[in-house]
Amino acid sequence: MTWDQGLHKEISTIASEDASARELTYLEAIRDALRYELLRDARVLLMGEDIGVYGGAFKVTQGLFEEFGERRVIDTPMAELCMISVATGMAFQGLLPVVEMQFADFISSGFDSIVQFAATNHYRWGQAVPIVIRAPGGGGLRAGPFHSQCNEAWFAHVPGLKVVAPSTPADARGLLISAIRDPNPVIYYETKALYRSIKGPVPEGEAGIVPIGKAALRRQGEELTIIAYAAMVPEAMQAAAQLEAEGRSVEVLDLRSLRPLDEEAILASARKTGKVLIAHEANRTGGIGGEVAAIISQGAFEHLDGPITRVAAPDTPVPYSPPLEDAHRPNAAKILDAARTLLAY
Amino acid sequence: MELSPDLLRQAHYWMRLARALDDRGTFLHKQSKIVGGYFSQIGHEAVSVGAALALEPNDVAAPMHRDLGCYLARGITPRRILAQYMGRSTGVSRGRDANIHGMGDLNFGIVGFISHLPASLPVAVGMAQAFTLKGESRVAMAFYGDGSSSQGLAHESLNWASVFRLPVVFICENNQYAYSTPLSRQMNIVDIADRAAGYDMPGVVVDGNDFAAVYRAAHEAVKYARAGGGPTLIECKTMRMRGHAIHDNMAYVPKELLTEWAHRDPITLLEDHMRGIGLLDNVGLSTLLAHIEAELDEAQAFAEQSPYPDEASLTDGVYA
């Protein structure tokens, strides 16, 4: 298997509460949201490298070019900096562009257009920039330093941007629809490792639209909260299930939105359990975990029974060789280790 | 193409207004009524006005910091501009952005620029692509300079406009210096317009101090874009007659160069032409200048009487 298919030996399935809901993979749910919005609103269009005729490097947009044509699904030159500001210009004239970065890693080539132009525009002269930038991120696919990055913290720091990172097929659809309808620039981090490895119920139509800024409690518990997002949510769930088997009660909070953070949900869970472990795939320093820890330290200090703990990648580029990448990337086992230490406090 | 008396009178008014507003701003900066940086555009009036007047009201433009004439000719008033310079709530950016930056208002088809030139080029290109996708017969005009022509984004933007054959007019204002950096450290060619050949678009060099030359080239390019021909690059050769900003005495510019260009002042050139064909005399000029001074007095009073933004509004508008 190659990186574009993902190293997915097995597909895990999320149990459905609604027997009538469709079962889609995470990737299919993203495509479903794009298609739904393209059908619903003639202002929506897709832009990116290889997304049209070829269907995208990961085939997220497969079939959409054929269905909607070259005016709605636009293959572009290889020019991220230009592409993102072209989207801004289109948005100024009433269109709603969804731009695909082929890999989240390449978003740095478009940095000025995002953080300097799009993010500041409404504050400066009152003109909204309703664009979405899809950024396929994350590692575990033996893809090396420039096809594996989790660089969401760069943008979570920037006023004027919104940043989301779904972990389930339902959220992948529900958050993307919200992002497209949001009047602000939204960076939508989709996790490559989840594309075909998870399948779950996905609502249709206007059902299941997920508001930006709301975390989801994935599992209730009493003794410890694991706060995670994107690829680390299933890993956290696995660790929590193992701890439950050992007689411990663990809560898992899926942030879903990284800017704005759902401070209320974060503090409520921290106050409830008194012990918080934050897990993210991105490297530690300056990551989302530090911000979450500061929110908890200030807002739930008297409820804490142990040190706020982070499980994150070490501060290195993402290495290619399997033993090195495995050592680099957080997973259920690493979360479990840290959780046991924290529970022993 | 013969330029009509009405067009010449309009151009004269906007160029004189831009010059006078520029001088007024310098004066107010010296009085500390304008704080922070201040950018003069003296010497650029024929470019900004000549290019802007070639557009229809429904077209859009993405001007920079030396294109005051474009903002004015498109309908951003001296009131709003002076209030902007003074950081007042009635300024174009409501006290959010500094001096001439961020003076965008799509009601007048103007995009507010950011300091990272040529960041507005792809935004103009995107607006043009929206016009094409929506089947609207509109044109986008984008300004950049000799300095920002060195940025990779200039290439990305011209190439993109060419690939999709978009209705864009690129105005490159070659004013000899980017801050203190001369052309010789910016490029190894004489004419930036030569690069148009690499994008299979027309590339034109004009005397940027000659209103008629700028207008004719821009008019032609706008017509070509509107007819579906695609983008054009117009390089306007001119000279920045003041420092990069008001703090800069530009000791690095040879005096002879400034003298040479001072003899070719764009407003003097236009006025000489208008006198020659009987469109202007001393009385007419005095009347116009008095009118402009009165207009600026009124605008300055408006700006000075306008309130500063309320501190409580600090976080307003970060999100739409």
Explain what you see.
- Chain A is α/β, with parallel strands linked by helices.
- Chain A contains 11 helices and 15 strands.
- In chain A, the strands form 3 sheets. Chain A has a 7-stranded mixed beta sheet with strand order 4-3-5-6-8-7-13, sandwiched between helices.
- In chain A, helix 2 links the parallel strand 3 (44-48) and strand 4 (73-75).
- By secondary structure, chain B is an alpha/beta fold.
- Chain B has one domain (5-306): Thiamin diphosphate (ThDP)-binding fold, Pyr/PP domains (Rossmann fold), CATH 3.40.50.970.
- Chain B has helices spanning 5-30, 45-52, 68-74, 78-85, 120-134, 152-163, 211-226, 255-262, 266-276, 282-305; strands at 60-62, 140-145, 168-174, 177-178, 181-182, 203-207, 232-237.
- In chain B, helix 1 runs antiparallel to helix 9 (266-276).
- Chain B is globular.
- The termini of chain B are far apart.
- The model of chain B has no long low-confidence stretch (mean pLDDT 97).
- At the A-B interface, helix 3 and helix 4 of A face helix 5 and helix 6 of B.
The proportion of strand residues of chain A reads 15-25%
Q: What integer is the average pLDDT of chain A?
A: 96
Number of domains of chain A: 2
Give the oligomeric state of the chains in this entry, treating copies of one chain as homo and distinct chains as hetero. heterodimer
The end-to-end distance of chain A, rounded to whole angstroms, is: 43 Å
Helix content of chain B: 40-55%
